[in-house]
Design goal:
about 625 residues; Heat Shock Protein 90; Ribosomal Protein S5, domain 2; Rossmann fold; 4 domains; 9-stranded mixed sheet; 5-stranded mixed sheet; 22 helices; elongated; binds adenosine-5'-diphosphate; binds magnesium ion
Amino acid sequence: MSVETQKETLGFQTEVKQLLHLMIHSLYSNKEIFLRELISNASDAVDKLRFEALSKPELLEGGAELKIRVSFDKDANTVTLEDNGIGMSRDDVVTHLGTIAKSGTADFMKNLSGDQKKDSHLIGQFGVGFYSAFIVADQVDVFSRRAGLAASEGVHWSSKGEGEFEVATVDKADRGTRIVLHLKSGENEFADGWRLRNIIKKYSDHIALPIELPKEVAAVEGEDKPAPEWETVNRASALWTRPRTEVKDEEYQEFYKHIAHDFENPLSWSHNKVEGKLEYSSLLYVPARAPFDLYQREAPKGLKLYVQRVFVMDQAESFLPLYLRFIKGVVDSNDLSLNVSREILQKDPIIDSMKSALTKRVLDMLEKLAKNEPEQYKGFWKNFGQVMKEGPAEDFANKEKIAGLLRFASTLAEDGEQVVSLAEYLARAKEGQDKIYFLTGETYAQVKNSPHLEVFRKKGIEVLLLTDRIDEWLMSYLNEFDGKSFVDVARGDLDLGNLDSEEDKKAAEEVAKTKEGLVERIKTALGDAVSEVRVSHRLTDSPAILAIGEQDLGLQMRQILEASGQKVPDSKPIFEFNPGHPLIEKLDAEPDEDRFGDLSHILLDQAALAAGDSLKDPAAYVRRLNKLLVELSV
Ligand code: ADP
Ligand code: MG
């Protein structure tokens, strides 16, 4: 035992304490994953060393044979993992094994409910990592030395996982990290060669470097135990370099967990090798669930980049557009230089063409998923639909393809679930319908009951109901799908095209003519509260409705802009009334101009309320309504 100096005791960050507690209490049914996590870290550490050694070969210190060794001691009830990767300095150890660096961690932890079943799902979004050692160990000792530091600058970290840890400076001859797990008394099953070998085969076969276990040698009586001979127990080749047909689903899934730091299997993956002008392999995954930080700007995104099998960087963001930031995976290029940097990636034309090819791959994979596994795709849409909606604005070239992947609520779908695709919508469109009709609004309840839908209900025409914050913005980028243009049913002068018969149109014109006088009277009464007054063809039950001008901002966009403190151009609605409605007939027959004015204003305000807007002068509305109510009761 070497001398320990500068020993100190430090507390874990609060979030680590919470994570440790959760892990120990909720992952008991799947304890063996601790080994996967520690091997995954060792493999990352070796990747990092290999990369840094490209420019600083002295980091290898003569020992270029990179590997992980797992050993055990039945008598001491310990399992030990050793790697000769990049290692950690004392500062590294304190930060990496004492805190969680991910942004938004504290917020995430607030979501923990205390219900272990629910929380163990949450933990999956988070990734378990190093701290999973404490699922099986009641003490963990880490000995590490960062490559390039002197042997005297090793570090010993030790903790019982209960709120604090100790660090001390020690001598460590070899670079890299050794982790000793002191197994809990009930966990001695893990101090066993067969058990360890099976766990490694199950979870870590895809790890690209050798994982060695001591060979089982029968003890010879009267002789000392010989020094262990080591044997490699995993396949030890980069998974993405193997032919697709030879890789089992389970291997793809375990590889995903390793690179994505996810706990759950992915929904789908796409593994490809490209040869020709550019040469690269890619393995792309769709996760089953959104990470907790999907909407955080600084959240990690991007692919793991390898150049000729050598790991180069994590979170290489230049290979996929932002709206596909949830995709995880690996890209291994034969064309890039090993000392490529993020800055170079942003400018390199090679990257541009890789990016568009990889984007296509992802969209194809999603198309396939939607077609072959509609239930799974529903889940995908719930998790990532909002992000996919950023697509049409960001990725012009693939607009149509992305539009095909969108899912909407509609007047024909139950409960406002977003399940209707545009293809499905068009397939069941009415004879003669050459438009895709939609309505945007704040909530599903509001749009579902909107007076704008009355004529569509009467004619049995489906309308897409869009209530996500991003929807109005999205629709401003979608002009058509499959040659059919989109029509906002709350906008402009609704033209149902062929869906209205010639007779209907003629009849409507006739009615409009007879109401010209009423139109003028209302115009005078409402003054500049509206931009126009006209007879409506879209109402069956409601007396009046507000239409948005063809070029004006919709309600949602206006509210978003206002909330962000921007000046919104003033736009006035178009007031449309239903000539057949009893209230309008009453209005038409009203001789008293004051009462006519009050009633017109009430109808205007009610139409605004029905559209989900707020009133500019609610008190005036109440006053007018009450006045009428009083008159009614005399
Ligand atoms: P993650 O792997 O998702 O980053 P972990 O909790 O598994 O999270 O590990 C935390 C950090 O500790 C790693 O990011 C790495 O910096 C460091 N670390 C863990 N194990 C090793 C190791 N064997 N060698 C070097 N660094 C390590
Ligand atoms: Mg890890």
